[in-house]
Design brief:
The protein has 14 helices and 13 strands. The protein is mostly helical and about 450 residues long.
Length: about 450
């Protein structure tokens, strides 16, 4: 179920009749509101921008710990058995999962290898370990040491975990190889698929609002809060890490989690624009130079991203061609153009509320799809590690691999630094009787 707060947001009155422990500020539009009482399985959406504020889970600590533990077990199995193998004319090769990163170092691509290692193995393991640490303390009724610091890291790690993208990259690689050699799926391939699914379920099981309430009880909210208005004009800011409402002070930190606060100070797109310009510059060599170099029977053939897409179309594998074209060309270009346009429109005046809602939805799309461009990088890592049979057939990474990895990271970073609150400023107050007229009715399910 979903609650849009339309029955819980008073008509611009001070928060004197509402429990101050339930005051929140939306991270995407800066609206000050009061959370309703939620049952397990329900969530609350912001009435102005529809951003999900809170999502309650049944048996939150037990559920998250069980999923995290199962994910760690599947990760261990994925590293303990053969991953993929292939053979052609009696000559073949097999690899383990870790070799998809280590092999790149031998081809003088250490930065790409580090990115693969971090996004597929290291960061997910740190996330699962941190979450397990917190859940054990909560279940025991006594927090383990450094729980607050560990909880702060979860939000930073989550966007950079890409195991599900790696699985898609593996499937694309298999389709590339199956036409020219026999492919063997090791036990690690199946455990990797289970690991990706469990990791996704684990991240979705985390109720951040409940987690911080269990770690450290919520301090009393500041006096004089007015619901239904933006927080910045009231001198208020919501912590992006734990959600606590704080007064804006110079070089302020959250009273609960001690994270630096990020009060809204007007449209500030310089950092996003700088990263987008850097991504545009790196996108040129990423497409002009070969991303893979294939050697077969002594002949060498370099392949660019676009050439790889065309080869899939010509061979009849148009679904894979569409996936590669979308992930490697359409998504990066579309994301950069969308962010550039958003940076421009936030400086324009007299925006209509409906247009604001469409713009923030565009921002959410760009933030979500950016990580999927790593498919091509993972394909290169897998193919380079697996196809190694000397002069008969071998694949080496091209110079475009590093450039394209940089494009993905820069565009993701640009989206993270873009402040969606700038889309909604200046925005009039949100009285209770006007909310349904500006927001469509939706039926969300947990």
């Amino acid at each position: 179920m979903s609650n849009k707060l339309t029955e819980n947001t008073p008509k611009l009155e001070k928060a004197t009749t509402v429990s101050r422990r339930r005051i929140r500020i939306c991270h995407e539009c800066d609206l000050v509101l009061a959370l309703p009482a939620l049952k397990n399985g329900e969530k609350a959406d912001c009435p102005r921008c529809t951003h999900t504020l809170v999502r309650r889970q049944r048996n939150a600590a037990e559920r998250s710990f069980a999923l995290a533990l199962a994910s760690v077990i599947m990760l261990g199995l994925s590293l303990s058995f053969p991953f993929l193998g292939f053979s052609v004319k009696g000559i073949g090769n097999g690899i383990e999962l870790s070799q998809t990163a280590s092999t790149l170092v031998g081809f003088h691509q250490p930065l790409v290898a580090i990115c693969v290692l971090l996004t597929v193995l290291v960061l997910p393991f740190l996330y699962l370990s941190a979450l397990s640490w917190l859940c054990i303390g909560i279940l025991q009724g006594k927090l383990l040491p450094h729980s607050r610091l560990i909880a702060r890291t979860l939000a930073y790690v989550t966007p950079w975990m890409m195991v599900d993208v790696f699985v898609i990259g593996t499937l694309v690689s298999l389709i590339k190889i199956v036409g020219m050699a026999e492919v063997e799926l090791g036990l690690s391939f199946w455990t990797l698929c289970g690991y990706a699914l469990l990791l996704l379920l684990t991240t979705q099981s985390v109720d951040r609002d409940w987690l911080w309430q269990a770690i450290d009880s919520e301090p009393k909210a500041p006096e004089g809060i007015i619901l239904g208005q933006s927080g910045a004009p009231q001198g208020l800011v919501g912590c992006h890490t734990c959600g606590l409402v704080n007064k804006i002070v110079a070089k302020g930190r959250c009273r609960r989690c001690e994270e630096p606060l990020h009060p809204y100070k007007g449209p500030n797109t310089q950092a996003t624009l700088a990263l987008l310009v850097a991504a545009l510059i790196m996108y040129l060599p990423a497409n002009l130079y070969p991303i893979m170099i294939t050697t077969s029977l002594g002949s060498t053939e370099p392949s660019t991203i676009l050439k790889g897409v065309l080869l899939f179309f010509q061979s009849g594998d148009w679904p894979i061609a569409v996936i590669i074209f979308t992930a490697s060309i359409l998504v990066p270009v579309g994301k950069m153009l969308a962010l550039l346009w958003l940076c421009w429109v936030v400086h324009q005046q007299q925006q209509q509320p409906l247009n604001r809602l469409k713009k923030v939805r565009l921002y959410r799309v760009t933030e979500f799809i950016g990580r999927w461009s790593m498919v091509d990088v993972f394909v290169v890592a897998i193919m380079v590690a697996l196809i190694r049979t000397g002069s008969l057939m071998s694949i080496a990474p091209g110079p475009a691999a590093l450039a394209f990895t940089a494009v993905v990271i820069l565009t993701m970073w640009a989206a993270i630094l873009f402040d969606p609150r700038s889309i909604w400023q200046p925005t009039p107050a949100v009285p209770n009787n006007e909310l349904p007229s500006s927001l469509p009715k939706e039926n969300h399910h947990v």
